[in-house]
């Protein structure tokens, strides 16, 4: 495994490999009560811990959370891009088994008569974690626009849906151009087409082309869950 290039990130919402159960156990089966350990779980946990603060989380509980976060991580392999062999499932499991998660609390001490005292923790990723993407973008060269490295398929759909009103406004601006042969009927048809196209591209479908009973579609309808997911992604996937 020496020389393999990989990064460790949070599992996407539909790719959890471990599930937390009501009795505190973690298994690879969801069952009736299993909570997927993924980026949404990590983000939701971070929001909760931030609200409670360091003094509100006993050490034993914090250690349990650290283990749960570790089980919510996956290995993203870049070995083949540099001519190496892909990591096997056993090698990925070994990497995660040897991974330690440590949760740190930033602090804010408020002063009634003096400025607040804040501690910010800048976490520097391990070697090659940032270098892999840095090298890929350098090799890509100049390009118009930029898709943030954190983007997943779900991010694209979330962004598209959130920009629906702006996109339709741009389409409506075309009517003011007074192009020859352009009619109000064509303008209305174009706006209707764009609205339906955005809606279609903002929904995940099953093999029959129907809306899928999918966690991604659930998150598309829940800004709070989307927020928790994004917090988890940024926390565990800074380099991507």
Description of the molecule:
With 240 residues, this protein is mainly alpha-helical. The chain has a domain at 6-146 and 223-233. Helix content is 43%, strand content 9%. The protein contains nine helices and seven strands; from the N terminus they run ββββααβαββαααααα. The strands form three sheets. It has a three-stranded antiparallel β-sheet, with no helix packed on it. β2 (19-20) and β3 (26-27) form a beta hairpin. The radius of gyration is 23 Å and the shape is globular. The model has no long low-confidence stretch (mean pLDDT 91).
Which tags fit this structure?
240 residues; mainly alpha; two-stranded antiparallel sheet; 7 strands; 43% helix; globular
Q: In brief, what are we looking at here?
A:
The chain has 240 residues and is mainly alpha-helical.
User: What is the string of helix and strand elements?
Assistant: EEEEHHEHEEHHHHHH
Uncertain stretches of 5 or more adjacent residues: none
Biggest sheet strand order reads 3-2-4
Q: Which structural class do you get from the secondary structure elements?
A: mainly alpha
Strand residue percentage: 5-15%
Average predicted confidence as pLDDT: 91
- Number of beta strands: 7
Topology record:
Layout: E1 6-10, E2 19-20, E3 26-27, E4 35-36, H1 39-52, H2 59-71, E5 73-77, H3 89-97, E6 107-109, E7 117-119, H4 131-140, H5 153-162, H6 164-173, H7 184-201, H8 215-220, H9 223-236
Antiparallel strand pairs: 1-5, 2-3, 2-4, 6-7
């Amino acid at each position: 495994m020496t020389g393999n290039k990989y990064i460790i990130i949070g599992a996407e919402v539909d790719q959890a490999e471990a599930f937390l159960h009501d009795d505190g156990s973690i298994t690879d089966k969801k069952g009736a009560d299993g909570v997927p350990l993924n980026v949404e779980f990590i983000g939701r946990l971070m929001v909760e811990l931030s609200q409670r603060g360091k003094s509100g989380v006993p050490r034993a509980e914090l250690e349990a959370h650290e283990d749960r976060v570790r089980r919510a991580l996956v290995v993203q392999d870049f070995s083949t891009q540099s001519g190496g062999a892909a990591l096997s499932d056993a090698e990925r499991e070994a990497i995660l088994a040897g991974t330690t998660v440590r949760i740190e609390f930033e602090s804010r001490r408020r002063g009634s008569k003096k400025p607040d005292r804040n501690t910010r923790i800048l976490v520097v990723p391990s070697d090659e974690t940032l270098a892999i993407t840095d090298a890929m973008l350098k090799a890509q060269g100049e390009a118009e626009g930029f898709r943030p490295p954190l983007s997943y398929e779900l991010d694209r759909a979330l962004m598209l849906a959130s920009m629906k009103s702006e996109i339709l406004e741009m389409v409506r601006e075309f009517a003011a151009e007074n192009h020859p042969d352009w009619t109000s009927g064509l303008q209305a048809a174009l706006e209707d087409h764009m609205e339906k196209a955005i809606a279609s591209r903002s929904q995940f479908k099953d093999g029959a082309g129907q809306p899928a009973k999918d966690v991604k579609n659930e998150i598309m309808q829940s800004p709070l869950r989307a927020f928790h997911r994004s917090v988890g992604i940024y926390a565990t996937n800074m380099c991507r």
